[in-house]
Amino acid sequence: MGQLGSEGEDIIGPWSEEKLDLLAKYLKAYSAIMSNQKTSNNPTGKPWLRAYYYIDAFAGSVRPRTKADEERYIEGSPLRALQTEPRFDGYWFIDVSPQRIELVERLREEFPDCAIEIRQGNCNEVLCNDIIPRFPRASIQRAFVFLDPYGLQVDWETVRKLANIRTCDIFVNFSVMGVTRLLPREQSPEPEVVEQLSKVMGNTEWINQIYRTPTEHQLDLFGNQEPSPSRTTLRAEWLASLYTDQLRTLFPYVSKPVLMKNSTNSVLYALCLASHNQTAISITNDIFNRHERLKQIGR
Ligand SMILES: C[S@@+](CC[C@H](N)C(=O)[O-])C[C@H]1O[C@@H](n2cnc3c(N)ncnc32)[C@H](O)[C@@H]1O
Known about the structure:
Rossmann fold; 12 helices; about 20% strand; three-stranded mixed sheet; alpha/beta; 2 domains
């Protein structure tokens, strides 16, 4: 997870750099494909798309510092998007922090030729009330929405609205650790916690499942079936696929999740794409698979 630096800067671990590199790779592929949809250089042979946008719901501090070397600044998600070629038709940056919005505002001078819109506030409100209504199907526009919270700040209702408009793809960095931390080991969570999880995951049936008694778990073991997880055996991989399964109830296509781990190998986040386009998912899975292969061989 990112920490707050002295001037409202993010201080980030290596997993955040990985996330940003994956984002940049996907944005390059996405923008190349989308720019062709505005010309006749696409499978339909006709231009059909009016414009496509990048929307960063958690813009951050633009140039976060690395934890390992606090003298080293890296390029955060707004810069990765603004540097992508071909360019997007416009960029929306949202952050709840006024300090961070000040840093984001400076990007207008750095990128005078880019159409930049900036909003300070809770991204759920800004997305639902201000941005999503601008992207109806009839607008013939598309948007790529990056949802990169520290914790559980993305409401499931926002995800539902983004899906229902059918013009927005979402790249989500889902906080697996944020969920695990809310689940007590010894007893079922309090109703307020269940409510909080429901707000983020859109479903809480799985909570009953993991807090069943051992006998109830055993009763599930018909033949060789895999046992359902319990709180004590709960794995991050299971939570990540629970979230991607939930996304599949809203979006026709969802990528595999890539797990972001810290130096002690604990899973912090699961990164995935939910889209209305199958090709987008194939591209993402290729990028993720390549990333995992390179990690395995230590590069
Ligand atoms: C993980 S950082 C974003 C990092 C950035 N995406 C990057 O990769 O460079 C999370 C950011 O979300 C902001 N934030 C927290 N809650 C928010 C909310 N509800 N709506 C919008 N921004 C929020 C924080 O101020 C912080 O800058």
